[in-house]
Amino acid sequence: MAYCYDGKTYETIKELAEEYGIDRQRIYSFRRRGWSLEDAMQMCINDVRGRGRLFEYNGKLYRSPKVLAEEYGLPWSSLSHYIQRCKTVEEAVDRCQKTQEKKIMLWGKKYRSRYEVATAFGIRETSISAEIHTSNRTLEEIVLELLQKEAICFEGKPIIHW
Prior knowledge:
There is one protein chain. The chain is of the alpha+beta class. The protein has 3 domains: about 1-45, no CATH class; about 50-100, no CATH class; about 105-160, no CATH class. The chain contains 9 helices and 8 strands. Strands 1-2 form a two-stranded antiparallel ribbon. The protein has a two-stranded antiparallel sheet with strand order 3-4. The chain has a two-stranded antiparallel ribbon with strand order 5-6.
């Protein structure tokens, strides 16, 4: 049986594998699982390893959101969150990048997240989030109120003030 790939005809898969310098057993493995020759070759050439769902972004295949996130310097948990909620991987990466670009400015200092604000002031992030979702106040007002009424914790040790 002759195999045609990239405009060239090969007598055997062994010839094709030698031409591209890849392991013919991987091609056979993909073909046994019902993959087309083109898809199998793409996987072998790009050296995509592992099992599970494939994620394609900018023409490159990734085996997991974590690998994709590491390549683009994004938090993988955030990217996974957006992949579950967005229609395409491109939209998920775009939204994750935009979220990472947003910085919180509080009293002249930049913070990357509400968690970082909470840690800096020794208050719980859940308290900040709850206030943001239930009240119509600014972050500054919320932090001031929480500093006055909540025990301050630094390195896990509460400091109660009156």
